[in-house]
Every structure is written in structure tokens, then in C-alpha cells.
UniProtKB/TrEMBL annotation:
This is Alkaline/neutral invertase. It is an enzyme of class 3 (hydrolase). Belongs to the glycosyl hydrolase 100 family. It comes from Carya illinoinensis (Pecan). GO terms for molecular function: endo-alpha-N-acetylgalactosaminidase activity; sucrose alpha-glucosidase activity. Keywords: Carbohydrate metabolism, Glycosidase, Hydrolase. One of its GO terms (biological process) is sucrose catabolic process. Pfam families: Glyco_hydro_100. Its EC number is 3.2.1.26. Invertase that cleaves sucrose into glucose and fructose. It catalyses: Hydrolysis of terminal non-reducing beta-D-fructofuranoside residues in beta-D-fructofuranosides.
Length: 571
């Protein structure tokens, strides 16, 4: 019988974990030895590298230089994709710069709070815990979540602290390689953990890592987004350091292929989008996002593009390169054609015919015009648009989701014109989407009878709270990155100033409640790490926009489809 170790699950009850299952001994001697060997440095395969000075970038990125023309902005973005200096450390006021204490006092406080959240495994920092709030029960907030660590990792990379990020990538990679069982069912080999924690045995003076692949999560749902975030972060690390030795490791190459195998396998789907369960991403509770949620599709697209830059063109990798290229073509066409909503498309849907047959159908998903919610007609501005939350047979979720739309901009899933339209929408609907605290995770909130049906009467996701229209400060870094890429730094600055008026005074809450985000969330943890890190990333990125290169990709002309709709029915 394997030894058992008692752990406390996220609902506060004790459970036993077998050492052969979720408790992993992490041994990385072989990997570390291979990393210590001198290796050639490669900067983004098949990409040119044009070194430019900070002053040149800064002049390009000044508010006066930014225009509203999509072509001009696209030209500016070439500086990010091809001119980002991987060895440049942020000049912003971080602990490693001379003017650190001369900046906004929140910056110093944020760095101190981020340091307190660091988690150590056998003497090495390996991540940051979700929150350092000792006033309430820890539940699973004492764990290192893959998605939560991303803004922390970006802040640390910008500050020149690459080692922590490398340790995190290696630890999660080794956790992926273990057998994953939920009850009697085996998960796919490529599934990445949602989170992990360090368990210390004081008797043996020994530490082990406990991983959660969904067996302890609410609803027992495996995290679809963890693998995508891991690939995106690996690319950010490689881009920033200019060193591909980590990504070139056989273990990392295999890890990427395992993740991709889960997503690129053939099945019964007739769409290139990924079919997902509710609760598989940042919105990790029942919120009606099952099907083809925009958050997963945008992360999927970004991860595919990052993997295309990181995978070796060897016997094992070249087949995946072809699969990725074909999927990117299909996915970009599908998303830009069927998920996109602007005033014209909204009017077209309003006039749709139903029950259309044959390949000439315009209403291909048989969406009923009567299913259009009343709020969307007033919400849609004359100039602006966004990717809707979900599209599947006879179902279109018209809600706005922040993460999916911002990531669509950063990954170039959105065309330059669509990216500009998304930003137009945010600026036109500032009161609804930003309010008094950035940023709404989704809009609008569902309530009354719909809330009972969709959430199952979830007391945490009541209207304008938590995932149901709550305001999440962590989304500030995504908004800032999208603003910089689309040439609107003044919009990011406005949002950051809003956050600075409250975040520190309120002790860095996880989320805010209310239609305007006026109230600290009723169950929000204080000193939430990704609220802290999201603020730091936004500040450093606005000060030194070249950092955008870590998390942004320019438009790939090869994946830009010619979008045409059926002409079988005209208005």
C-alpha cells in the first residue's frame, strides 16, 4: 500500500492523497544539468530581430504618436514583435531600479506584498500563492495556481528575476508527467495542473508537491486553460531572456506536444473551436460558459501561435507544425466570422431567417432572432464591436467577456480593425465595463430566474458579484496591454489611476461588487496576489511599452482569411 498523506481540500474537509497519485517527488537534476551546458541562443525561429533603442520605441509610443488608424497602429506594432530587446530590464521603479521609492507609493507596497506571496520548494522560489489573507480560512488560496501566477511571472521577468519563472515552468512540467486520476477515470497525459502546493513533513524534514488536476476543484472540472497559459508563459520567458535553451529541452518540447495532442485530436466536432465544460477557466464555477467560450478560444489561438514559435522542426515536431498551421487558418476564420458582433452584424441577426438548410444558409447556427437580449441593442455603440461569449448550435451568448476579448487583441485573433472596434466599445461603454474599478469580468450580470437556471442558485455568483459581473483588478494588465497595442495608452492610464484610488486602501481585494464596482466583494480575499501583480505589470508596461513584446504577437498574414458570407439571402 502506498503511504497516504492527509491534505485539506478547498472546501475545508480532510482528504487522503496517495503518494502514487497526486503527491509527486520532483527531481530535476538531469534537466538542470542540461540547462547548465552552453547552448546556442535563438531568438524566435523564423522571425527577424531588429534591435531598436528605448528612445526610439518611446517616441513611437508617445500619446501624440498614436493614431486611431488601424494601419498606422499595425505599423507601430512591428516594433513590438520584431524590435523587443530580450535583455532589457524595466526602467520602471521596481526594487532593482534607483528611483524605486520616488514613484507612486503603491508600487513599493505592491512589490513588498508580492515578495510575501512567494512559495519556496527545497530552498528555491517556485511561484506565488493566490492570496496572503490570514483573516479568513485559507481553503485553496494557499496554493500556486497556474493562471494566477502569470501576472506575477510577467512582473518578475520585467524586473529581471527570470529564475523564479524558470523554476515554475519546470515544476509544473514535471507535475504534468504524472498519472492523473479522478475517481477511477484517467485524465489525458497533456493536462496541466490547476494548482499545486508545497507539503512539508517535519518528521522527515522533507518537502513534496501536491498537484490539483481538478479532483479537488469545485465541480471537479479539469483546467483547460492551464496548458495554454503554460505555453504562453514559456514563450514570454524565451522572448524576454532571448534564450531558447529552456524551451528546447526535450522535456519542454514533449510537454508542449502533449498539451497540443489534447487539443488537435480529431473527433466529432464540426468546428475548429474547443468544446469545454463550465468552470474550466478563470470563471471556474457554473456560469453558463459551457460549449465554446471566448476565453478558451482566444487562449487556444494564442497558445497555438506561441507553440509554432517554440516547437523544433524535428521528426516529432514537424507534424504538429502542420496541424497547428491548419488549425490556425480554420480557427481564425471561424472566430472572425461567427463570434464577431458589431452594429451591422447585430442588425443582420435581428433579421435572420431560421430553419435554413443546405450549404447556402446564412444563419448557419440556426440562431433565433427572438433570443436576442434586450440589453444588447442599447449596449452596442455605433462604432465598436466585440467577440461574443459563446457560439454553438441554436445558442449565442451575447455577453461581453473581458479576458477573451483582450487576449484576442494580443494574439491578433482580432484583425486590426476588430481590435480598434473592441477598444471603441470599451471607451464608449466605460461606465458599464470599467465604472469605478477596472474591470468587469463579464457584462451584464444575469439575475432572477435566469440566474437560478444558469448558476444553479450559486450564492457566490449573485448579480454584479464575483464571476457574475464582478470587477476584477487583475484584468488591468490585460487592458493595459491591449491599449498599448492598439495605440491608446491614455485609456490604460485612466484605468490605472482609477485602480490607484482604491486598491491599496482596500488592501488589494480579489474582486469588487456592484454595477460600478464600488464595493469590495462580499467574499473577496484581501492581498490577492494577482491583483497586486496585475497592477505592477500594468504600471511597468505603460512606462516601458517594449515589455508588450512578451505577451503580444503581431498579425500573421498567413492566417488572415478572406472572410465572405453566403449571398443566398440579402436584406
Amino acid at each position: 500500500m502506498p503511504p497516504e498523506i492527509t491534505d485539506v481540500s478547498q472546501n475545508g474537509t480532510e482528504k487522503s492523497l496517495e503518494a502514487s497519485g497526486s503527491i509527486f517527488e520532483i527531481e530535476e537534476l538531469d534537466i538542470l544539468k542540461s540547462l547548465n551546458q552552453p547552448r546556442p541562443i535563438h531568438i524566435e525561429r523564423n522571425r527577424s530581430f531588429d534591435e531598436r533603442s528605448i528612445s526610439e520605441l518611446s517616441s513611437c509610443l508617445s500619446p501624440r504618436a498614436f493614431g486611431r488608424n488601424a494601419d498606422n497602429n499595425a505599423h507601430i506594432m512591428d516594433h513590438f514583435e520584431y524590435g523587443y530587446s530580450p535583455s532589457r530590464r524595466s526602467g520602471y521603479n521596481t526594487p532593482r531600479s534607483s528611483s524605486y521609492f520616488e514613484s507612486h507609493p503603491m508600487v513599493a507596497e505592491a512589490w513588498e506584498a508580492l515578495r510575501r506571496s512567494l512559495v519556496y520548494f527545497r530552498g528555491q522560489p517556485v511561484g506565488t500563492i493566490a492570496a496572503v489573507d490570514h483573516s479568513v480560512e485559507e481553503l485553496n488560496y494557499d496554493q500556486v495556481f497556474v493562471r494566477d501566477f502569470v501576472p506575477s511571472a510577467l512582473a518578475l521577468l520585467m524586473n529581471g528575476e527570470d529564475e523564479i519563472v524558470k523554476n515554475f515552468l519546470l515544476k509544473t512540467l514535471r507535475l504534468q508527467s504524472r498519472e492523473k486520476m479522478i475517481d477511477r477515470f484517467k485524465l489525458g497525459d497533456g493536462v496541466m495542473p490547476a494548482s499545486f502546493k508545497v507539503l512539508h513533513d517535519p518528521v522527515r524534514n522533507h518537502e513534496t508537491l501536491i498537484a490539483d488536476f481538478g479532483e479537488s476543484a469545485i465541480g471537479r472540472v479539469a483546467p483547460v486553460d492551464s496548458g495554454f497559459w503554460w505555453i504562453i508563459l514559456l514563450r514570454a520567458y524565451t522572448k524576454h531572456t532571448g534564450d531558447s535553451s529552456l524551451a528546447d529541452l526535450p522535456e519542454c518540447q514533449k510537454g508542449m506536444r502533449l498539451i497540443l495532442s489534447l487539443c488537435l485530436s480529431e473527433g466529432f466536432d464540426t468546428f475548429p473551436t474547443l468544446l469545454c465544460a463550465d468552470g474550466c477557466c478563470m470563471i471556474d464555477r457554473r456560469m453558463g460558459v459551457y460549449g465554446y467560450p471566448i476565453e478558451i478560444q482566444s487562449l487556444f489561438f494564442m497558445a497555438l501561435r506561441c507553440a509554432l514559435l517554440l516547437l523544433k522542426q524535428d521528426d516529432a515536431g514537424k507534424d504538429f507544425v502542420d496541424l497547428i498551421t491548419n488549425r490556425l487558418h480554420a480557427l481564425s476564420y471561424h472566430m472572425r466570422s461567427y463570434f464577431w458582433l458589431d452594429l451591422k452584424q447585430l442588425n443582420d441577426i435581428y433579421r435572420y431567417k431560421t430553419e435554413e438548410y443546405s450549404h447556402t444558409a446564412v444563419n448557419k447556427f440556426n440562431v433565433m432572432p427572438d433570443s436576442l437580449p434586450d440589453w444588447v441593442f442599447d449596449f452596442m455603440p455605433s462604432h465598436g464591436g466585440y467577440f461574443v461569449g459563446n457560439v454553438s448550435p441554436a445558442k449565442m451568448d451575447f455577453r461581453w467577456f473581458c479576458l477573451g476579448n483582450c487576449m484576442a487583441i494580443l494574439s491578433s485573433l482580432a484583425t486590426p480593425e476588430q481590435s480598434a472596434a473592441i477598444m471603441d466599445l470599451i471607451e464608449s461603454r466605460w461606465e458599464e465595463l470599467v465604472g469605478e474599478m477596472p474591470l468587469k469580468i463579464c457584462y451584464p450580470a444575469i439575475e432572477s430566474h435566469e440566474w437560478r437556471i444558469v448558476t444553479g442558485c450559486d450564492p457566490k455568483n449573485t448579480r454584479w458579484s464575483y464571476h457574475n459581473g464582478g470587477s476584477w483588478p487583475v484584468l488591468l494588465w490585460l487592458l493595459t496591454a491591449a491599449c498599448i497595442k492598439t495605440g491608446r495608452p491614455q485609456t490604460a492610464r485612466r484605468a490605472i489611476e482609477l485602480a490607484e484610488s482604491r486598491l491599496s486602501k482596500d488592501h488589494w481585494p480579489e474582486y469588487y461588487d456592484g454595477k460600478l464596482g464600488r464595493y469590495v466583494g462580499k467574499q473577496a480575499r484581501k492581498f490577492q496576489t494577482w491583483s497586486i501583480a496585475g497592477y505592477l505589470v500594468a504600471k511597468m508596461m505603460l512606462e516601458d511599452p517594449s515589455h508588450l513584446g512578451m505577451i503580444s504577437l503581431g498579425e500573421d498574414k498567413q492566417t488572415k482569411p478572406l472572410i465572405k458570407r453566403s449571398a443566398s439571402w440579402t436584406v
